[in-house]
């Protein structure tokens, strides 16, 4: 399988190149030149396959420059935790994607990418620098995935004051090969700095650069594994097929991976792209006009994105046909108040504690059901553990959320970050000095 830049350059590359570059020389995102179809037999067998078996079956259709044995090792290192489906009712289940080391779904992509990069880098003598802009969860997932991996250093950029206390601790307390940059600006500023760094000749001269944002194709593809897995579990538990997938969305990487899964042959009724006050995508579906804006701060802050980077991939997957996109994807937004109310409703109905991101999903799903009278089962992707957003959850429910030990450990450590403005020259200087 080869990969192309969606900015239209004819430069087709192999998986290794796409992963190491992160972003194409023309500034475009990489996509596979075709979406492989899985056999009906594979789809049939999903209920009896493990997450790791599914992962290998899916990823080996995209990657032909890593031998299958090595690919299996990468999967075993990266996806060393589960994704249980919690069925709450005949019509609703929650896919818990927070059982990885940093309690968020980004562990899937980040750990796969880290292990793939370590594999590709093992024979190089030059150091590889991973630059990551994070609105909260990416950073800790990435930092954790690359921690102490030889020959690789990580630069994390996060918006000052716009991530939770817990997230900040996760981002800034690791040390060793992980360097945190606290940017006085928004997440979009951070993302912009990373994009500029990739195009800067001084920086490129000194380092081998790669990205671990959801723009990296090796981050994106592993996020399709759990769509297949949860489909199989739903069939096994309730004997239901063709679910709705409700995806709390920010940069739209998670949703894009789901769309890829469905184009590979996974039966899906519909996708619901649930967003918070940053309602760029619902506006696009309604009007056909894509209008990026500055990000607005919300309690589901990992989705505070005003210019979703995977929008271009979503559109590319449908060859720019707005009506086809509308048939497959419903999108709406939830306010912070609606999000808190939904946390209460889900707890009252099912004794289930959901985090603000999953709650945005449940809230938008409810709006969808109300407007369409749909009775189709929906799998809501729960993208973070509620303990990561304990302040919001506890204020909504008036109960204490238990903090898993893998999170509690870092809360007692000292923050270390380089604080700078959102100007590229400042960032460039700090980067060239610090790393
Ligand atoms: C990153 C993140 C999202 C948004 O995912 P995208 O792929 O950027 O759309 C949702 N919830 C949580 C907890 C996240 O960390």
Low-confidence stretches: none
For this structure, the CATH topology of the domain at 82-103 and 220-403 is Rossmann fold
In percent terms, what proportion of residues is strand? 5-15%
Give the structural class: alpha/beta
The helical percent reads 40-55%
Query: What's the mean pLDDT score?
Result: 94
Hetero ligands: pyridoxal-5'-phosphate
Sheet with most strands: strand arrangement: 3-4-12-9-10-11
- Name of the CATH class of the domain at 82-103 and 220-403: Alpha Beta
Q: Total helix count? A: 20
Radius of gyration equals 20 Å
Measured between the Cα atoms of the first and last residue, the distance is 34 Å
Number of DSSP E strands: 13
Biggest pleated sheet: 6 strands, mixed
Shape: globular
Q: What CATH architecture label of the domain at 82-103 and 220-403 applies?
A: 3-Layer(aba) Sandwich
């Amino acid at each position: 399988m080869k990969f192309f830049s969606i900015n239209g350059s004819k430069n087709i590359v192999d998986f290794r190149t796409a992963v190491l570059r992160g972003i194409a020389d023309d500034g475009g995102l990489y996509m596979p030149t075709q979406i492989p179809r899985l056999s009906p037999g594979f789809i049939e067998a999903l209920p009896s396959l493990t997450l790791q078996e599914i992962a290998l079956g899916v990823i080996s259709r995209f990657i032909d420059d890593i031998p299958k044995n090595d690919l299996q090792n990468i999967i075993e290192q990266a996806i060393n935790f589960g994704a249980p489906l919690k069925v709450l009712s005949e019509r609703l289940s929650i896919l818990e994607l927070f059982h990885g080391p940093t309690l968020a779904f980004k562990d899937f992509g980040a750990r796969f990418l880290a292990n793939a990069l370590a594999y590709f880098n093992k024979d190089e003598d030059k150091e590889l620098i991973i630059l990551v802009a994070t609105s909260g969860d990416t950073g800790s997932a990435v930092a954790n995935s690359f921690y102490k991996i030889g020959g690789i250093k990580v630069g994390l950029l996060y918006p000052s004051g716009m991530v939770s206390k817990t997230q900040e601790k996760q981002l800034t307390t690791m040390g060793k090969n992980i360097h945190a940059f606290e940017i006085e600006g928004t997440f979009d500023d951070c993302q912009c700095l990373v994009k500029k760094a990739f195009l800067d000749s001084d920086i490129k001269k000194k380092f081998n650069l790669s990205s671990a944002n959801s723009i990296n194709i090796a981050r994106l593809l592993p996020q399709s594994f759990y769509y297949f897995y949860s489909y199989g579990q739903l069939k096994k538990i309730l004997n239901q097929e063709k679910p709705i997938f409700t995806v709390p969305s920010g940069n739209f990487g998670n949703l894009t991976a789901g769309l890829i899964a469905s184009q590979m042959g996974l039966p899906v009724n519909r996708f619901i792209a649930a967003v918070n006050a940053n309602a760029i995508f619902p506006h696009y579906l309604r009007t056909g006009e894509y209008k990026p804006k500055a990000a607005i701060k919300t309690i589901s802050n990992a989705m505070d994105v005003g210019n979703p980077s995977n929008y271009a991939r979503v559109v590319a997957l449908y060859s720019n046909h707005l009506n086809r996109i509308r048939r497959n994807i419903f999108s709406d937004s939830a306010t912070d108040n609606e999000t808190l109310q939904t946390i209460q409703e889900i707890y009252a109905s099912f004794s289930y504690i959901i985090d603000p991101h999953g709650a945005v999903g449940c809230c938008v799903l409810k709006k969808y059901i109300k407007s369409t009278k749909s009775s189709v089962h929906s799998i809501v992707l729960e993208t973070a553990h509620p303990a990561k957003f304990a302040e919001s959850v506890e204020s909504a429910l008036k109960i204490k959320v238990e903090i898993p030990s893998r999170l509690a450990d870092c809360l007692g450590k000292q923050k270390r970050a380089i604080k700078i403005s959102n100007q590229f020259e400042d960032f460039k200087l700090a980067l060239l000095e610090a790393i």
